[in-house]
Structures are given as structure tokens and as C-alpha cells.
């Protein structure tokens, strides 16, 4: 729903809680509250724990907007900080999902003694400032009622705990599972994976098998009936707090060191000479410095983040996209150790980027709809798409230019057919399959979409870098 007179545009991902909803007004992010939610907000703001979470940056910046016109049917308006780039849990690495889960549990553990809980437990309640997770669903806080379980437990299991169990116990990448279903992994699906001795692995019996058995046993019971049963059994706030602490201990154990991967050691195995690397870094840095400081930069095919770090010197925020989950996990851990808040690493196959998903296909926005940047790096990626994935070269160029806003800088590397990496890819393809994969054809296509400002042949002679302006 939109309010044309006020310029409010509804956030497509915010509709499941009828007590509050998020809207955009220009660059402002606003949350409208009904009467009950407004009362709960005032109590939350007056508590001791919530202002401390805000001050520590663990909850997104939030303040009441006293002078804003309140849309009809709502009682109050809050203004939130704008997250630099919205990502989805299936674009995160294992360590990222684990840190997000731990923040969610820390917030809940802090809220319970103060008389508050959260309605939800979804991974989608968290976002990132670089390598720092942040809780964004302020409307999820609500007063706790003794004798009632945590309403968000099932969501927490399905979107956070179960994916972590897949990685830590089975060595499986969770991203395809979460991308396939917006509500996460169902308990009965997990139960079928953890049979025999796997049932005894940490967290599995309690949070998979027992959870699934209770769910099936209460399938015909109403929520009110379940709450009555728990009260009668003596379920208390103290037990809820103990459950949260137990989940925290479990999640801390669910680490997964990045598995061996060809791309983890790419800087050593990629074939660049020292002269090539120095020339490439100088060209990229100079290209990024050639114009005004950018709001958002994309590094497509970021690998270990070497060039994303260069981009961060000239951009307010950098999104570093890499296909290999192990490489992204290693990059995230390094950025986290550095306290980096300007670079967000994401897991994504550039030949199959995140589509729109959820309700009406827009509840979770497609990557293409989120990723319009002022600077785009595409270094050593064109040949992987054009040869490795059989994407026609004209479409690769259109796709790259499409990620840039009008006037955006595009820094792109073309790997010649005679380059060792290109020959390796071509060796696995039928002869004559890519007759148009040539430098002159690439330049022609690039000039049709952009204005080429500079080019550099690397000392090896088999790779060329270009700086271009989109739509120029």
C-alpha cells in the first residue's frame, strides 16, 4: 500500500505483522505503528536494555518522528537508519549466518530479564554494516508473558539453526536450501537427514527430532492450547532464558572452517606475474580515483577482496560478490577481524544471481534490483561467464553496464583467448564454439554501451583493462 499524498512507498518485505509496517519516503526509512505497538514502543524506548543495544550498534538506529504526518489507521511513526545494502541470508557465508544467529540470541537474552521478547526469530531480521551484523526488526519487540514460549523459536531453527547444522555437521552449503524456500528448512526435512548416529550430534536430537515430534504431536492443537499446556507444566521466563543460553552455547559450537577450494589460493595460482599485479592494482586504483567519491561500488568476482579494499578507499560502501562460499567465508573472517564496516562480502553465482522471491516475487528483491552502483569492478570475470558458462558476450557486456547507474565508472578486465586461463576453459569446449570471443569484438560491444576513457595491456600481453563510463 502507498500513500501518494505523503510520498510513502511500502517496503515489499514488510507485511507479515499487522501491528507495524515499514515504508520508504525518499531516502528515509519509516516504520508506522498501530496503537498497541506504539504503546509497546514507548515502553521499549524507556527500558534500560534497548538504548544500550542502540548505542552499541547492535540494533539499527531508531528514533520517533514526532512531527511527521501519521498515515490514517496508524498511531506513531519511527525513523530507522538506512542499511547501506540489503542482502538475504542465502547470500551469506557460514560464519556470517552464525554471527547473525548469535546476535539474535544475545538480543533476546538481554531483552528477557527486562520483560521483553521478540515475536520473530527469522534470519531476515538481521542485516549488515560491512562485517558487523545488525538487528533491524524493532517492531518485533513485545512484552514477554510468563508461561508462553518464544514465538520466534521455529523461525530461528528453520532460517538460522538448521542451516548451521547442515554446514557444521554435514559439510553442506546451506545457501541453496534457504534460497529455495523463504521460510527456511522444515523440521521434518532435517529429521530425514539426521538419522542413525547423526541423531547424537550436538543440537540435533533436541532441536530437530524432538522439535519435529512436538510439532507433529501438537498439529491439531491451537496456539492457545499449547500455551495453556506450557503454563500448566510450569514453563517460566527463567526457563525461556535458559533455553536461549543453551542455544547460544550450541551455535558457538557450530563453526565450520572453510573447506579446501581452488579459489581460496587464487592470488598464488591465477598466473599473474608481479608486474601484472602491480600494473593492475595501479590501474584499478587510478580508475576509482578518477571521479568523485562513490556511494556504492560493486566488486563482481571479488575473490579474496584485494580490489574491494581498494574500492573502499574511494566509495562509501562496497559489495564484494564471489561464487565460492569458502572464499567468502575467509574474506568475511578477515574483514571481521579488521573491524571493517564498509565492505560486505556476499555468496553468489554471477551466472545465476539471486532472483526475486517470496510473496509476489518481490518480498525478497532480486540482486539486479538492489545492485545499481556508481562504480563496478569486473576483474577476471568476463571469460568465466562468456566461456565457462556459455553466456553470449553481448549479454555479458549489457549485464555489466546494467549494474551501473548513468555515468557510473566500469573497470573491466578482458582475458584474451590466448591467455592460459582462457585456454584452460576453451579446452573443455567444442572447437569453434566462441568465434566472437575476441578483444576487438569486446571493445566494440563495450563502446556501444559506454565511453571508454582508458585501457591498459598488462605486461603479460594477454589481458587488457578498461575504464569506461556507463551511458557515456
Secondary structure class reads alpha/beta
Overall pLDDT metric: 91
Unreliable runs, pLDDT <50, ≥5 residues?
Answer: none
Number of helices: 18
Q: Strand order, biggest sheet?
A: 12-11-10-13-14-16-15
- Rg estimate, integer Å: 25 Å
SS strand fraction = 15-25%
Description:
The chain is α/β, with parallel strands linked by helices. About 40% of the residues lie in helices and about 20% in strands. It is built from 18 helices and 16 strands. It has helices spanning about 35-45, 50-55, 95-110, 155-170, 175-180, 185-195, 205-215, 225-230, 235-255, 265-270, 275-290, 305-310, 325-340, 365-370, 380-390, 395-400, 420-425, 440-450; strands at about 10, 20-25, 30-35, 60-65, 75-80, 115-120, 125-130, 130-135, 140-145, 295-300, 315-320, 345, 375-380, 405-415, 450-455, 465-470. The strands form 4 sheets. Strands 12-11-10-13-14-16-15 form a 7-stranded mixed β-sheet, sandwiched between helices. Strands 1-2-3-5-4 form a 5-stranded antiparallel β-sheet. Strand 2 (about 20-25) and strand 3 form a beta hairpin. The longest helix is centred in the N-terminal third of the chain and has 18 residues, at about 95-110. The protein is globular and about 70 Å long. The two termini are about 35 Å apart. The model has no long low-confidence stretch (mean pLDDT about 90).
